[in-house]
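Section 4.2 – Deliverable D4.2 (structural model, holo form)

The reporting period included a commitment to supply a predicted holo structure for the target in complex with 7TS. Inputs used:
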Amino acid sequence: MLDTKAIRQQFKILDTTVYGKPLVYFDNAATTQKPDSVIDTLSDYYRTLNSNIHRGAHYLSSTATERYEQTREKVRSFINAAKSCEIVFTRGTTESINLVASSFGRAFLQKGDEVIISGMEHHSDIVPWQIACEQRGASIKVIPFSDKGELDLDAYRSLLSDRTRIVAVNHVSNTLGTVNPVKEIIGIAHSYGVPVLIDGAQSVSHIAVDVQDLDCDFYCFSGHKMYAPMGVGVLYGKEQWLDKLPPYQGGGEMIKDVSFERTTYNNLPFKFEAGTPSVGDVLALASAIDFMQGIGMDNIAAHEQELLQYATQRLLAIPDMHIFGMAENKTSVISFLIGNAHPYDTGTLLDKLGIAVRTGHHCTQPIMDHYGIPGTVRASFAVYNTKEEIDNFITGIERIAPMLS
Ligand code: 7TS
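Output (structure tokens):
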């Protein structure tokens, strides 16, 4: 049992009242709230340490550089990467995927080649590949999923061919909550000699991730969905792959020597970190990892599973309730519709009761097309959420349901 009271005390925003009601924050898949330790690290950085890294001879710069590189090591250990040079700081998952799609596309995609993604990807794991494929004359193949929200691995096997250059799938679906069997997906791709990128935006704060055990070639995630600030994300790449990829952006920091005739590039990971990074956000990411590890990833996962089971069971007792995504292996994301009610109306009425959910297509329009719906209402839980909040949410739905029919 987690001490959720002690955890919640670290998040002042959770004491907010909305329209006179206590805030119930169930929009964690969009972004999590930040504990005091993360906010303190960020503000302390600007109050006491602000300087540019890797370039100043002075105390502030060398201390900030040291903390920045210590964070890289912390991230390495958090996802069990083999080397810290395999950790590239980006602005978020979107930038991490764009980096790989752009660099990999330029180096390895040719006319007639194929990229495999899944039907349940976030737009940020679709559009960058479409751009890369368009530029190179390659095409995209899509792994279908069942109504339950599970990928069809037989169909996946039949999509792989000697034209496949890369597979890119999410670890956890932000709309359906499905935990995809990525280890198996990676193993199958590797038997064809094909590398795999995993979009981990919705997994790293909910389940323990070990990139060496998964044997993925790339793994992408965002700080802001794991209790850290917006503006920082991570691209993990196996050294052998990052070495082979051309730079994404050119500029300061990513070079060794520049002349008008010829420029040579810096070593990993700096080759992919052009320009001044968001240093304060990176340092605060270290505090976010400390926060999660202080609780323990397995304890976080167990608590959130309890919330998921409880909320699912209570929601299914409501007449005309439909949940989209009932995979065997799920994280704490519940997408639903009540009868024919428009998701936006449900979301707006819940908001008036202080309950924050997300409505719409959640940047996964192909999932909406699969079910033939315009959108869903999505409740997503984090470590600080409680069963009492779920009771509050269910009472709210029971109250608004008659207004919606
Ligand atoms: N991939 C997945 C699976 C996501 O859920 C998201 C964001 C992204 C990529 C992009 O992350 P970003 O940090 O670069 O924006 N998902 C959501 C969501 O579900 N609601 O708001 C953002």
